[in-house]
Amino acid sequence: MKVNNFSSVAPIFVFSIIIGIFGASQILNAESMADNVPAFLPAPKVFIYGTGVALILAAVAFIIDRYAKLAGYLLCLLLLVIVFTVDLPGIIGAKTVEAKSLFTTNALKDSALAMAAFIIGNLSKH
Questions:
Q1: Is 54 inside any structural domain?
Q2: How far apart, in Å, are the Cα atoms of 22 and each of 4, 39, 106, 107, 110?
Q3: pLDDT of 62 above 70
Q4: Which domain holds residue 41?
Q5: What's this model's pTM, rounded to 2 decimal places?
């Protein structure tokens, strides 16, 4: 990272741990998450496992500070793709207020995480 003080490195480390936990959760709960994968994507479980691995790899890249710039930008892209292919269609197609609220919360969370990943990419030297 361009900045090496604790106040800059600690949030990136915490973000990395959280992204890694999301990745592990994707892998461990692929069966139940496959229902939310858009119908136009073949092999929903492969998509879930792939995103889980991508999240874990991004977390590792941030922690070891290798390929963190690329990982930050790719993670941002992945999360925005999820917002537009999973969260927004979920909001539009929700049949209950609770479901609409859940998809809206996920869209906001994924958007915020994408922007944080973009910032980490900007702060990284390599």
A1: yes
A2: 26, 22, 13, 15, 11
A3: yes
A4: 6-123
A5: 0.90
